[in-house]
Amino acid sequence: MYSPVTRGSGWSPGFLVKLVLIALVDALGVYAVLAAWGAESWGVLAAMVALLLVANWAYFSKRALPLKYILPGLAFLLVYQVYVVAYTGYVAFTNYGDGHNSTKEQAIEALLVQNERRVEGSPSSPLTVVADGDTLGFAVVSPDGAVQAGTADQPLQAVDGATVDAGRVTALPGYDVLDYAAVLERQQEVTELRVPVSDDPNEGSVRTQDARTGYVFTSTLEYDAASDTMTDTTTGVTYTPNDDGQFEAADGTTLPVGWRVLVGLDNFVTAFGDDRYAGPFGKILVWTFAFAVLSVASTFLLGLFLAIAFNDARLRGRRVYRTLVILPYAIPGFLAALLWSGMLNRSYGFVNEVLLGGASIPWLTDPVLAKLAVLGVNLWLGFPYMFLICTGALQSLPTDVLEAAKIDGAGRWRTWRSITLPLLLVATAPLLISSFAFNFNNFTLIYMLTGGGPRFDDASVPLGHTDILISMVYSVSGLDGTAAKDYGLASALSIVIFVVVATISALAFRRTRSLEEIA
Amino acid sequence: MSARTAPFVRRPGHRARWFSEIGWRHLVGILAVAYAGFPLVYVVSASLADGGTLTGSNELFASVSGANYVALGGTRFWTWMANTLVVAVATGAGTVLMGAAAAYAFSRFRFSGRRVGLTALLVIQMFPQMLAFVAIFLLLISLGNVVPGLGLDSKLSLICVYLGGALGVNTFLMYGFFNTVPREIDEAAKIDGASHAQIYWTIVLRLTAPILAVVGLLSFISTFGEFIIARVLLQSEENWTLAVGLYGWVSSLQDANWGLFTAGAVVSALPVLALFLFLQKYIVGGLTAGSVKG
Q: Is A11 on the interface with B (CB under 8 A)?
């Protein structure tokens, strides 16, 4: 363990800087802790407290020297990488998604609120729209003359000191009374506002249509906490919770809002076995492999060929050639993909109109051509990278081995096949593997060029012929708004991708290591 | 660039030989330059066309006007450009600082858990962060309930997410380089009374500047073009990055927005292109050391 020599000399400038930085971090951290307390996010609260304690310990203890340097990066790594990976693993085993978005308590509350109806014959009470800052609320006068007020988050409470004029509240301590014009301005908010009668959602809420009269709305559903059942008071049907996280009646009908539960391997079974997903999933899996392998192979071959062509000191202007050839690499990938999507447009694109003399080839809308187009664009995008690494590898080949081959009488071809190529492969193999892994997840290219299309004719899910696994994950997750959200299935597919990429990388790296030992 | 063969002496009557040795290389070179370059010529030409539609852009340099570039001023393009630069620069700088600090610790200190830590990093970096975008989305919903600035639709939280991937990818690259700086230098400085912080900031960081430049640049470039996480996180238009914004233009009305898009593409490719051409040597060095463009 290193013990710094200048330690203990007290208030050096470095120590002051550290003190200020830690004070800042602590201040922000304490703010976040308090906010988490207010929002009742106990997980965030615990994580923040733990991070703060570790940070203060690390920077003020003399025994935590390495941690001082690792901690900043480690904190981000733990939250935004390790945690999200673990959380992906967890979500993959749940039915999280549309219809199963929240906890059971929240689902029950949502069901009660959604099924609220005005109780027939229930008394109406004079109502005033009030505002607490920016939050709207209602003040009502009950039949016995008591004044109650509340907002959407704050159930009705008795308020003292209200001014009541002609049976209606005209002034209220702690609130501003909205005049007619202000109510008109926020008409929609007012008609949508529901102020709970009490903390118990079974008791319903007060709502208004005209901003002058309030009615009590109660839910047609009734939740009984003791038996954990939901009863529809109009039909008398009783719903009980099932294993899928929904309330289910005896005849199998379910209530629309459910909650998330662990569903075991269901998501994986859906991916591999469900009618809607298994067909597209199989095709997409095959295409993902084909796309990644062919991309690596085609870019590598073209890059290698160009590297060999330009690897001759006698070639004049080869610096110019090299600089111009790697230009596609200096263009951000998303721009290139978008640019090509326009150039390959069937009716107006540059490729059809100019290069092919007015042809009308459906580059991006025919299943086979779209695949070729994706590979072609990726070749354009990727060959400069391969060109760069092959040039580097060729230039660092040991000259003595090449000379020895020459002395032994090996011809050009023989030298190339037995010496240059094996050495080149050893040097570039790890990069080819990373390139494979990168292309396996090349979401940007696919999404920007074809959007995964053309669609499968026979599939009910929005997936297409050029979709790769990662773009399938994106569609299935529903985050783009084109399909129902299914976080569980999307996460399960992420796990599948991870397993595939990790296995291939691990195998390939082991294999290249043995290659290296032989070489 | 070692010249392994003797300079070729050109003699009359050896045209065929010249072609088989050198000439075909020029032919390949010209074809390759044409292949690599024609889309770039096209995009510049299209951005200068005054029609601004896809159809009207096909005749190269039929008209030259700055209309499309001027029209960018009437869109949110410059906001997106500023957002992208802010996010990419902050991520690049943060990645360098945090990655270098971690690499310094792993390279210079011997502590329990060091080997485990290195192995863990190696394993963690195999899981690309983008695969977890659903979980990131859900995490930011919960964080946003507590601190709105760290929730969805915030550039700050986007930077934080990108920084989460900083250690995994780059620490190894830096760790290897840090190991090549002789320890004797730090030890001499220590005997002279320098603290570990002084050694780090004034000696090690200076000596490892080339790798810091590479990591910063690669991080900048990959952040500049990152799409999926930015798309999931940033919801309101004024927070979008270039990748999200330009995608919106092309996907919604490709034909009508083509002039705007090509002008925007030229402008937004410039910073990366300039960095790339000026610092080619460093970037190429970093590439062959094991990073892939994002």
A: no
Q: Which residues of A touch B168 (CB under 8 A)?
A: 77, 81
Residue A2 belongs to a domain: no
Query: Closest Cα of chain A to B265: distance in Å?
Result: 6
Tens digits of per-residue pLDDT, A415-454? 888 888 888 888 888 888 888 888 998 999 999 998 887 8
| Interfacial A residues in 70-109 facing B (CB < 8 Å) | 70, 72-74, 76-77, 79-85, 87-88, 91, 96
**Do A122 and A173 share a domain, yes or no?**
yes
Cα–Cα dist B95/B86, whole Å: 14
- Do A54 and A115 lie in one domain? The reply is no
Per DSSP, the residues of B11-56 read -TT-HHHHIIIIIHHHHHHHHHHHHHHHHHHHHHHHHH-SS-SSGG
Chain A residues within 8 A of B40 when measuring between CB atoms:
327-328, 331
Give the pLDDT confidence of B217-265 residue by residue, as tens digits: 888 988 998 999 999 999 888 999 999 999 988 887 766 788 888 899 9
Query: Residues B133-157: what's their mean pLDDT?
Result: 90
Domain identity same for A162 and A200: yes
* B84 band by pLDDT with thresholds 50, 70 and 90: very high
* Chain B nearest C-alpha distance from A430 (Å): 8
Q: Does residue A210 share a domain with residue A276?
A: no
Q: Which of A259, A406, A146, A339 is nearest to B37 (CA)?
A: A339
Chain A environment of B267 (Cβ under 8 Å): none
Residue of B nearest to A390 (CA): B288
Domain annotation covers residue A264: no
**A206 close to A194: Cβ distance less than 8 angstroms:** yes
Do A87 and A198 fall within a single domain? no
Could you give the CA distance from residue A136 to residue A129 in angstroms, rounded to a whole number? 7
Residue A469: closest CA among A438, A451, A504, A442: A442
Q: In chain B, where are the structural domains located?
A: 15-70, 75-288
Q: Is A442 on the interface with B (CB under 8 A)?
A: no
A240, A255, A285 - which closes a domain: A240
Q: Is residue A410 part of a domain?
A: yes
Nearest to A395 among B1, B197, B242 (CB): B1
Closest listed residue to residue B157, CA positions, set B179, B170, B142: B142
Q: Is residue A260 part of a domain?
A: no
- Residue A465: pLDDT over 80: yes
**What is d(CA A215, CA A236) in angstroms, rounded to the nearest whole number?**
24
Boundary-marking domain end, from A66, A91, A116: A91
Shortest alpha-carbon distance between residue A457 and chain B (Å)? 22
Chain B residues closer than 8 Å to A84 by CB:
129, 132, 135-136, 139, 164
The pTM score is 0.83
CATH number for the domain spanning A409: value is 1.10.3720.10
Number of domains in chain A: 3
User: Whole-angstrom Cα distance, residue B208 to residue B178?
Assistant: 7
Closest C-alpha among A429, A417, A428 to residue A393 = A428
Q: How many CA atoms lie within 13 A of A301 on its CB side?
A: 6
Closest by Cβ to B193, choosing from A6, A83, A392? A6
> What is the extent of the structural domain holding A132?
106-240
Residues A224 and A296 in one domain: no
> Given pLDDT bands bounded at 50, 70 and 90, which one contains residue B285?
low
Do A334 and B135 lie within an 8 Å CB cutoff? no
Are A323 and A371 in the same domain? yes
CATH code, residues B75-288: 1.10.3720.10
A283 with A359, same domain?
yes
Chain B CB within 8 Å of residue A216 CB: no
Q: Is A66 on the interface with B (CB under 8 A)?
A: yes
